[in-house]
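Exercise 3.2. Students should predict the tertiary structure of the chain below and write it as structure tokens, then compare their answer with the key that follows.

Predict this chain's 3D structure.
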Amino acid sequence: MAERVAGILLAAGSGSRLGQPKALVELGGETLAQRGVALLQDGGADPVILVTGAVPVTIPEALAVHNPDWSTGMGSSLATGLHALAETDAEAAVVALADQPLVGAEAVRRLIAAYAGGASVAVAAYDGKPRNPVLIARGHWPAVIELATGDTGARAFLRARPGLVTQVECGDTGSPDDVDTAEDLARVRGVATVRSEEKS
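Answer key:
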């Protein structure tokens, strides 16, 4: 039986620069939290942990876990998600960010395939540049939690152990553009609209 790979969606921030919590921002009729959970599920992650913070978010398909320290940055949310998964039989986790709604499910599938092929840490890269999502095997979770402080998330762990990292090119599957400001949101909405029109 294939080892279970879970998903963690980090959706705890208040969106201070955007003026509203990103998890609740709507794009194409869905909130960014809903899109992020669907991204992980469609890519093959199960179960999916939704890490909340600034506002409560409930999505039936995900297990919502509140991070009381969300205001300290992404690191505490990542640690919260990994702690929650420690109670499950998941052997690896794909970590995605709610504010990167143009990432495609194929990126998650490729990371899981890399894990199945022997990679214990896999990072989605776009034109050779490592971004998100990131897959981390269970054996590394304690070290990731230890180094996850402030807004660094898994970055400190990845930089400390570059030899472990398998980069997986995903530039053809989507875009890691962040939604940090109103301008970002307008641009991402435009790209999302074009994509949906192309699909239809």
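Discussion points: The longest helix spans residues 182-199. Residues 5-193 form a domain with the Spore Coat Polysaccharide Biosynthesis Protein SpsA; Chain A fold (CATH 3.90.550.10).
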